[in-house]
């Protein structure tokens, strides 16, 4: 197919480079410099998609980010699939493969279109809410159907072959948008020597100057653009970022800029070392917002039929891409800018049927030029209905009175294939609103402008200034001021001369009235992407939705990738008219990042796959790997979970490991335990204030278990702290709590007790901890240490320093298993040596490595809690039955003490820690199972607690559990019940949480 | 993403380096056991939620690990000052009402 709509000359395309591309399976050609949209229009492709809800045929409407219809699925291969790309923003490259996101079996003949036609009248706003409301279980089914029907594009099923980078940048002045305002501001700031970043979302910088009829210095405006860009390129502190969308503007001038590096070359990066896109995280001292304005279409009947376009887009396609998207044009406008499309069309040699102007007596320079060219101008009128279904075939025109929302005078039918409309301009305020600032309505420009944001200046069209001479002057001032505010001396810029254009005032018209009432007229689309009609908004207001935020959610106005670019102001204006309010009273909806969609890859950057989250390994990790350990994630740590031998199941391995510790000796890598070195003359006093129990009498080389509460009296951490010297302690914390506890100690020291002289240092990674536990522990350790291990010299809850396997070590005689235990601590780099030295005696003593699961079983048999598993932030030391660990008469009111006398913590029916012994010894209760006292009561049953830890004990020969049970300490011997999801009920007896060796004989041998 | 001046480091740093720790200037009663249940509950649980000026405690968690105070506007998110522990705010709702800078 030849490029039927391509002009012989003009445009910024390279006619020597023909590019072949595929759209919906058909091959076409375009030129380098085309967008996918301009190439499709050049080839006369009218229908590019089907609409979201009604499945109506749709064509290209716009030429930029505001395009609602030409939403494409890109990618030649499965891995390269990218959904929801606007054809208007996609540069053409050789081999580009695009499909419509909507339309089945194809956009020309669509099955859903039939449903849209038949069901159309019934598919009002809220249709999905009303139809698919119940039952909830069916939603998954509905959703699948809706998504397929809606055709929102699809994500690739294969791994993304591309790489993405994150950059972090700081600059003095960030200029967003490189049209006339942005270029001038960047030049003014750049000449001062300030660090400037200028970004622009399009393929080429220049914005409106690339397709304007205005001249600068008496010449084509693009010449001035080239000069400015050339000068900016020579400035060492200026960074030019083309193809870069400022997609979010956050607090304190933090902007995210998405730079597409290769998407104009191929669907995946052509070179494996190339990065597909970069996300620049920019902190700017000053931001100059020069994001321009989007033209607003007029809302009239059948304004979605292919061939309906924006006036500005028509000019852009003709002047930038040398494409005339039709043969016979009717313009319907409320302002002078609409005339430019007609003039460009006529100059391209095609027929302008008429310009229909809503103003009674327009008199601007453009109007005069159109008259001079002999173009028919119909004033005080508007197109109120487009004719045609797959392509515009005519325009119905009538006199219109916007004030009374009525048609006047005689009606006329004009034959044409293209209708270009302009209802004025909507400044692109999106970024300014991302921080929560509301845009401000201005009656004089019939649009919203950005509200006040600190450190941000809006210039040009986004600020409601449309005359080129004023844009340039404002921008020069803004660039100068931004540089001054950043502490730079300004060199000044000379502004190019502009031929003044006399413009007549625009008129406010949004929806064009129809001869029938809105509800019965052919559909008048407000939001083309989401199929929201004027009648839909009318229905929403009639059903009682008065807030614009509610109207938005009920109708889907401004949803999806569109985010209210094209339709929002029209929708608000229509809602305002129906609610008898002004537009500022109605207000805008909230604009949120991202301004246009970006791929997840760009958001993730390098933080994916192996680099998604750091993994922490202990010094013994390699040994565990070699021994075939299965690992458990504890925070970022990889901890050995269990060490299967041969084909052992987890259950078998854990039973074997448990028996080894109880009968011989086992070893656990406990290096991940948090370790905080505490020094200073007030260290002891400080520890006494943050732990519940007493520390005043703890001698050197003695260890003590401590419980830590928040000031509300609830347990937050526990661990053993050792006195290494009068002013020197080593605190251990739970593996997961290490960082939080260090911060907790600092909080109290820095904010409440700065007078205490005490210092905290995290030494978690510096010391490796090997827990040697079991009756043979002493015999084994004595093989490789010079420390006297005899029972009466090195007692339980004591610490010794000495040599282990020839390296300096701290050995703590503490026990989390209930067996004779030595915790051997050495510098992490020595750990493997010591570990191997112990394993040299593996067979002599039956040394068995065990993992966290066995540790859990062994500690639970002893009733030792795990903070965060057996507690949940609502459990006091007394609830745990740990009154022995509470210093009620300590002189300083320690953290949590006062709360223990609050009425709530004194309640008799608090949940308390108990043991549960299932009546059937083979049963292992489910952790989290809810406990009831009477299994025969009707649903909902009264739940009185839950199982917190549950295992099978090879030592006890039965399943056992720890649980939190209402009034549990007084229920010893009672039966409780756990109703399961399958209808069965498990019965268990309430027993002491200490199942094994309640007197602690085994650890004290 | 706030840009926060750490009064100890003497530099502006990204929000990601800091953690908010709630309302500032909540002093623990010196004699907790003498407090009524109501006074103790007030200290433990009750915090202001102003629209406007808010004094907050932050910690430079991945920087110097120091706690400090921030005066922040809860609507605009503007940070009006940061100051060290033990210091008093210069900008308060009262000082602004008397015509201080906004």
UniProtKB/TrEMBL annotation, chain B:
An annotated Gene Ontology molecular function: sarcosine oxidase activity
Gene3D superfamilies from the UniProt entry: Folate-binding superfamily
Protein's GO biological process: tetrahydrofolate metabolic process
NCBIfam families recorded: soxD
Name under which the protein is recorded: Sarcosine oxidase delta subunit
Species of provenance: Nitrincola nitratireducens
């Amino acid at each position: 197919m030849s490029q039927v709509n391509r002009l012989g000359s003009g445009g910024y395309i390279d006619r020597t480079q023909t590019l072949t591309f595929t759209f919906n399976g058909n091959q076409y050609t375009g030129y380098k410099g085309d967008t996918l949209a301009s190439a499709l229009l050049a080839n006369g492709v009218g229908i590019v998609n089907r609409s979201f809800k009604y499945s109506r045929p749709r064509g290209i409407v716009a030429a930029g980010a505001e395009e609602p219809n030409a939403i494409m699925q890109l990618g030649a291969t499965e891995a390269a699939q990218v959904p929801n790309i606007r054809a208007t923003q996609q540069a053409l490259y050789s081999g580009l493969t695009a499909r419509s996101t909507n339309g089945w079996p194809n956009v020309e003949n669509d099955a859903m279109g039939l449903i849209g036609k038949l069901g159309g009248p019934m598919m009002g706003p809220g249709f999905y809410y009303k139809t698919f409301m119940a039952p909830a279980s069916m939603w998954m089914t509905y959703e699948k159907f809706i998504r397929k029907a809606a055709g929102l594009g699809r994500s690739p099923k294969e791994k993304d072959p591309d790489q993405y980078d994150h950059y972090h940048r700081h600059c003095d002045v960030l200029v967003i948008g490189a049209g006339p305002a942005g270029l001038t501001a960047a030049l003014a700031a750049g000449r001062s020597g300030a660090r400037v970043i200028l970004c622009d979302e399009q393929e080429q910088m220049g914005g409106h100057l690339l397709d304007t009829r205005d001249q600068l210095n008496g010449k084509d405006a693009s010449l001035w653009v080239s000069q400015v860009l050339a000068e900016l390129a020579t400035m060492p502190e200026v960074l030019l970022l083309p193809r870069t969308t400022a997609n979010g503007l956050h607090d304190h001038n933090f902007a995210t800029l998405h730079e597409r590096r290769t998407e104009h070359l191929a669907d995946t990066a052509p070179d494996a070392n190339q990065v597909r896109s970069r996300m620049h995280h920019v902190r700017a001292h000053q931001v100059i917002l020069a994001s321009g304005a989007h033209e607003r279409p007029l809302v009239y009947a059948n304004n979605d039929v292919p061939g309906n376009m924006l006036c500005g887009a028509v000019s852009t396609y003709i002047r930038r891409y040398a494409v005339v998207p039709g043969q016979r044009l009717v313009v319907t406008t409320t302002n002078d800018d609409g005339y430019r499309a007609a003039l460009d069309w006529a100059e391209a040699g095609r027929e302008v049927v008429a310009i229909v102007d809503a103003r009674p007596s327009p008199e601007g320079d453009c109007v005069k030029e159109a008259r001079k060219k002999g173009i028919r101008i119909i004033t005080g009128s508007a197109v109120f209905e487009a004719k045609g279904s797959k392509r515009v075939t005519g325009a119905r025109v009538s006199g219109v009175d916007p004030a009374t929302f009525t048609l006047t005078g005689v009606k006329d039918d004009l034959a044409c294939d293209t209708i270009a409309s302009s209802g004025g301009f909507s400044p692109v305020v999106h970024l300014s609103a991302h921080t929560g600032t509301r845009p401000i309505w201005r009656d004089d420009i019939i649009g919203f402008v950005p509200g006040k944001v600190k450190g941000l200046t809006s210039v040009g069209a986004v600020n409601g200034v449309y005359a080129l001479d004023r844009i340039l002057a404002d921008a020069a001032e803004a660039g100068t001021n931004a540089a001054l505010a950043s502490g730079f001396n300004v060199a000044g810029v000379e502004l190019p001369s502009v031929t003044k254009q006399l413009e007549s005032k625009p008129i406010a018209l949004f929806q064009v009235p129809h001869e029938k009432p809105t509800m019965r007229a052919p559909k008048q689309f407000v939001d083309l992407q989401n199929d929201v009609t004027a009648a839909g908004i009318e229905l929403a207001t009639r059903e009682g939705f008065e807030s614009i935020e509610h109207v938005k959610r009920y109708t889907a106005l401004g949803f999806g990738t569109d985010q209210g670019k094209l339709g929002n102001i029209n929708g608000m204006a229509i809602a305002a008219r129906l609610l008898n309010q002004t537009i500022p009273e109605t207000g805008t909806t909230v604009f949120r990042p991202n301004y246009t969609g970006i791929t997840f890859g760009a958001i993730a950057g390098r933080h994916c796959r192996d680099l998604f989250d750091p993994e922490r390994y202990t010094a013994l990790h390699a040994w565990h790997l070699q021994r075939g350990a299965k690992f458990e994630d504890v925070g970022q740590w990889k901890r050995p979970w269990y060490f299967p031998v041969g084909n052992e199941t987890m259950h078998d391995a854990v039973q074997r490991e448990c028996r080894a510790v109880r009968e011989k000796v086992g070893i656990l890598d406990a290096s991940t335990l948090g370790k905080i070195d505490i020094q200073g003359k007030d260290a002891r006093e400080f520890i006494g204030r943050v732990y519940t129990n007493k520390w005043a009498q703890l001698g050197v080389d003695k260890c003590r278990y401590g419980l830590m509460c928040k000031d509300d009296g609830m347990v937050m951490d526990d661990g053993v702290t050792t006195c290494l010297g009068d002013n020197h302690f080593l605190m251990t914390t739970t593996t997961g709590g290490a960082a939080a506890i260090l911060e907790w100690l600092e909080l109290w020291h820095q904010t409440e007790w700065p007078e205490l002289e005490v210092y905290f240092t995290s030494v978690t990674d510096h010391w490796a901890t090997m827990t040697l536990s079991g009756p043979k522990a002493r015999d084994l350790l004595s093989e490789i240490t010079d420390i006297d291990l005899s029972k009466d010299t090195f007692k339980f809850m004591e610490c010794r320093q000495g040599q282990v396997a020839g390296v300096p070590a701290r050995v703590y005689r503490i026990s989390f298993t209930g067996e004779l235990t030595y915790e051997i601590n050495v510098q992490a780099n020595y750990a493997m040596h010591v570990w191997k030295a112990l394993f040299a005696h593996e067979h002599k003593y039956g040394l068995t490595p065990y993992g966290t699961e066995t540790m859990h079983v062994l500690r639970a048999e002893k009733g030792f809690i795990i903070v965060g598993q057996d507690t949940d932030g609502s459990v006091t030391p007394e609830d745990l039955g740990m009154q022995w660990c509470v210093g009620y008469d300590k002189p300083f009111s320690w953290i949590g003490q006062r709360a223990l006398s609050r009425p709530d913590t004194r309640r008799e029916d608090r949940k308390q820690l108990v043991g549960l012994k299932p009546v059937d010894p083979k049963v292992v209760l489910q952790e989290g199972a809810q406990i009831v006292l009477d299994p025969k009561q009707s649903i909902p049953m009264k739940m009185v607690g839950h199982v917190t830890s549950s295992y099978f004990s090879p030592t006890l020969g039965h399943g056992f559990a720890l649980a939190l049970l209402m009034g549990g300490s007084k229920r010893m011997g009672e039966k409780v019940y756990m109703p399961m999801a399958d209808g069965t009920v498990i019965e268990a007896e309430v027993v002491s949480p200490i199942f094994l060796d309640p007197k602690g004989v085994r650890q004290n041998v | 993403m706030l840009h926060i001046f750490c009064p100890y480091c003497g530099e502006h740093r990204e929000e990601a380096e800091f953690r908010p720790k709630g309302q500032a200037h909540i002093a623990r009663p010196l004699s907790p056991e003498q407090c009524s249940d109501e006074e103790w509950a007030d200290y433990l649980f009750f915090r202001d939620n102003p629209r406007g000026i808010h004094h907050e405690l932050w910690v430079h968690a991945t920087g110097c690990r120091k706690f400090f105070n921030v005066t922040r506007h809860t609507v605009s998110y503007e940070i009006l000052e940061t100051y060290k522990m033990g210091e008093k705010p210069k900008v308060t709702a009262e000082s602004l009402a008397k015509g201080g800078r906004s």
